[in-house]
Amino acid sequence: MARDDDTLVQLLTPDGERVDRAVGPDGVEYSVDLTDAEYRGFYRDLVTVRRLDAEATALQRQGELGIWASLLGQEAAQVGSGRALRPQDMVFPTYREHGVLYCRGIDPIMPLSLFRGVDQGAWDPIETRCGMYTIVIGAQTLHATGYAMGIAMDGKVGGDDGEAAIAYFGDGATSQGDVNEAFIWSAVYTAPVVFFCQNNQYAISEPIERQTRVPLYQRAAGFGFPGVRVDGNDVLASYAVTRHALDHARSGQGPTLIEAYTYRMGAHTTSDDPSRYRPPAEAEAWRSRDPIARLAAFLGRQQIADETFFAEVDEQARTEAVRLRERVLTMPDPAPDSIFDNVYPHGSPLVDGERERFNAYRKSFEGSAH
Amino acid sequence: MATESLTLGKALNAGLRRALDRDPKVVIMGEDVGKLGGVFRITDGLQKDFGEDRVIDTPLAESGIIGTAVGLALRGYRPVCEIQFDGFVYPAYDQIVSQVAKMHYRSRGMVRLPIVIRIPFGGGIGAVEHHSESPEAYFAHTPGLKVVTCSNPSDGYTMIQQAIASDDPIVFLEPKRRYWEKGEVDAEAEAYPLHSARVARPGTDVTVVAYGPMVRTALDAATAAAEDGRELEVIDLRSLSPLDLGPVHESVRRTGRCVVVHEAPSNVGLGAEIAARVTEECFYSLESPVLRVTGFDTPYPAARVEEEYLPDLDRVLDAVDRTYGW
Ligand SMILES: Cc1ncc(C[n+]2csc(CCOP(=O)(O)OP(=O)(O)O)c2C)c(N)n1
User: Fold this and answer.
1) How far is A327 from chain B (nearest CA, A)?
2) d(CA B192, CA B122)
3) Global ipTM
4) pLDDT digit string, tens, across residues B90-121
5) Record's InterPro entries (chain B) (predicted)?
6) Which of A105, B54, B233, B247 could be stapled to B50 by a disulfide with Cβ–Cβ 3.0 to 4.6 Å?
7) Does B273 touch chain A (CB under 8 A)?
8) Is the pTM here over 0.80, yes or no?
């Protein structure tokens, strides 16, 4: 399972011991220096995104969502990297980055409307600085790279106020041509982009051994940029490594590949049955590395947080989940002829004609029994 | 420059130059487009004058060219991507049909991707395989994309500028075997609307519908037919998606006969679409079925037999004759 553990950047052990500093395979020394309030903020995020995710899974089971891709187990990788982003950075997610979206301040109803089938995940990518979910595996890594090339062409790199792009993808995605092309492009153009791979050990049923013979972070060397493996269940390390990679990018030094070593505790999606391909003991072993439990242990031991705080966070997360549930249940379906909207920015005679015939046809049923 | 005689290749170059000049957000990207000026020299001299950031030599990976163009467009750029040859667009097919074509729709109109994908297409230059294909139907079948093709230098010059200025993602097909044919280009003339068909030669007896490289062939057929006393009306579609069939319907209502010509295989090709729509709209005017003259339903053949494959003047005239057989 977790091989090459000595290369793993870790700042919080599974038992909640704080590691002062850790040197990554890229030779960089990583550490964090957070205030108590910031530590508590991380905890609040982790608990909230897990709770909202559980609510979405429940809503799917009750038939309110068509499908759901749970982030269970990957909260630390997402919150750690998500909180490392600055407002000016641009995110290119896949379909499981609900935690990153949450950190980006995007209303949690947005991904749910996608999975309910009300729309196609239409938050404003420009205003939110967060692209729409990408279902085709790996496609968004090229979008991130092109966007980052644009940042460089706009002269928005070099200083502390520079911009960067970050692309999220899974271990399976690293086999795709697009991801490899993105690696080449970003290296060749020194594009300010961070590749954040959540190696959750599986691409649906296929284990990581089906995608690679070398640890994924080592691939970066072949493309000519640094690769780092971080403990993806450690929110502090995920934060530190991502922050460094983004700074590296925004200062004009080009891309970094981050492999967040983690585990998908649940199914791939609600349509999947992991018992067919995963030994139960495996998930059990990973349970002891739970990202939330380890931060809680640290907070408690250091007296940064007490039972009242933990209870308050739970309660607040529960309230947010209930609110989300109510909103999902009252989400209206789109108008039938909205299928003809926005095919082209300025319309098209073909589509306009079809909309007219469609509406006339529907109207012909008015007043009949249907 | 007022009116000038230019080859299609030079006219496209002039149009690209003007677009780069007008809008600093326009960037050209593709394999060999910089120093070399593209394998057909369509981007000749542009990198020298606009710099490596505006005319970008890319790595050799088509999905990468289109995928990064999406990111650049999201960043406010207007990328013009060159795909070196028609047969090499397929590695980028996913990015084009699944990403480029759909983002505007998925985002409920919030995202615009003003990307132009230039593809030299079609045969007739004696090339090896993958260098002579006509992939237009794949793209015309995809909602969210627009597909256009020019047939002469004047259209080449204006249409490329219009395509770049358009907010739609546009697949821009260039008839490569016509790159070296000359025509008058009036740089000051008002441009004809991009998505409109145009009567290339008026006539009264049979409507011949063509686009891209086949317009020249259809016009040659019309000249030959005129010697035999038959007046063919040749319509250059120019836009393949959306199709502007108004002028075709209008023409067929007068002539009662229609022949559609394209290089691509006939099966599920644009000719089928046009025949269906003309039949629906002009049913009572038709004297005979709409006929197609197309490439065969085979892969594009070896160069030594491509003349057999490609529709030529005689096959067009034969189809015209057959419309009189009903
Ligand atoms: C190009 C493509 N092929 C196949 C699929 C079907 N599919 C959806 S998710 C998935 C596995 C992806 O695994 P990974 O990249 O590791 O991401 P994870 O789901 O583990 O986060 C597959 C095969 C797809 N969405 N896109």
Assistant:
1) 20
2) 24
3) 0.86
4) 999 999 999 999 999 999 999 999 999 999 99
5) THDP-binding, Transketo_C/PFOR_II, Transketolase-like_Pyr-bd, Transketolase_C
6) B54
7) no
8) yes
